[in-house]
């Protein structure tokens, strides 16, 4: 129990120490202060970094100026009818206690329109990543995935499919002509080469030829006998 109280007190002390070390005091308009026509208060606030714990001081001549805290809409329109708070001591200060915008204008007529207005912006710090947080692991690889596509070399077209017909599997068709003789056949080729041979004589024509030859022989024999008779 006592240890818990000691640790809590230590954390509070460290937090207060950090705020006291990082806190700054800003004089609006720097050495010129809160007045008309000498300072661009928009540019002045944009060059500053405000944090929680900083102190903002308005220094001005209270006979001619004052300080009004207003909302965003009244800040843009320079409306002085419904301020959040009004200060008129000539040396007003406040401490930043939260993040956001703090809008201030001068309530004297015409002064806000002349540029006597300032926006104190306190940005919230961006969240820091937690140390040691595990990174998401990649999904497991599946061993039975689709086969990879073939790799194509850029600039080299793929060969087109062959359109030539397949060679015939059987012997070539006959043209009706006899084959040419080989060089050692002894036959001299002529203009008739390549024609079919003459058909062989039929048996009837052979009989007629034999009878004719027989009669011719008888005629010759008769002529010889007649010659010897005379």
Could you describe the 3D structure shown?
This protein is α+β, with helices and mostly antiparallel strands and 230 residues long. It contains four helices and seven strands; from the N terminus they run H-E-H-E-E-H-E-E-E-E-H. It has helices spanning 2-22, 41-46, 72-77, 203-229; strands at 25-27, 55-59, 67-70, 85-87, 91-95, 100-105, 117-122. Strand 1, helix 2 and strand 2 form a beta-alpha-beta unit. The longest helix is centred in the last third of the chain and has 27 residues, at 203-229. Residues 15-21 and 175-196 have low confidence and may be disordered.
Write the layout of secondary structure elements.
Blueprint: H1 2-22, E1 25-27, H2 41-46, E2 55-59, E3 67-70, H3 72-77, E4 85-87, E5 91-95, E6 100-105, E7 117-122, H4 203-229
Parallel strand pairs: 1-2
Antiparallel strand pairs: 2-5, 3-4, 3-6, 6-7
What's the mean pLDDT score? 74
Broad structural category: alpha+beta
Q: Radius of gyration in whole Å, from Cα? A: 64 Å
SSE succession? HEHEEHEEEEH
- Could you say which overall geometry the principal axes of the C-alpha atoms support? rod-shaped
Number of helices: 4
What tags apply to this protein structure?
230 residues, alpha+beta, four-stranded antiparallel beta sheet, 4 helices, rod-shaped
């Amino acid at each position: 129990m006592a240890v818990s109280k000691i640790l809590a007190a230590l954390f509070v002390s460290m937090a207060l120490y950090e705020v006291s070390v990082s806190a700054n005091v800003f004089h609006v308009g720097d050495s010129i202060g809160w007045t008309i026509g000498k300072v661009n208060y928009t540019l002045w606030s944009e060059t500053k970094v405000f944090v929680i714990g900083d102190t903002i001081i308005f220094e001005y001549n209270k006979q001619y100026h004052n300080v009004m805290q207003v909302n965003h809409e009244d800040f843009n329109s320079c409306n002085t009818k419904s301020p959040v708070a009004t200060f008129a001591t000539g040396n007003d200060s406040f401490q930043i206690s939260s993040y956001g915008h703090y809008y201030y204008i001068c309530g004297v007529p015409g002064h806000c329109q002349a540029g006597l207005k300032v926006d104190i912006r306190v940005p919230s710090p961006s969240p820091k990543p937690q140390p040691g947080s595990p990174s998401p692991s990649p999904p497991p690889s599946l061993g039975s995935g689709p086969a990879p596509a073939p790799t194509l070399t850029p600039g080299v077209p793929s060969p087109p499919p062959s359109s030539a017909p397949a060679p015939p599997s059987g012997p070539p068709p006959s043209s009706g002509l006899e084959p040419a003789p080989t060089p050692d056949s002894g036959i001299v080729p002529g203009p008739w080469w390549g024609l079919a041979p003459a058909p062989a004589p039929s048996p009837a024509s052979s009989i007629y030829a034999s009878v004719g030859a027989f009669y011719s022989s008888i005629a010759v024999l008769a002529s010889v006998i007649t010659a010897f008779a005379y």
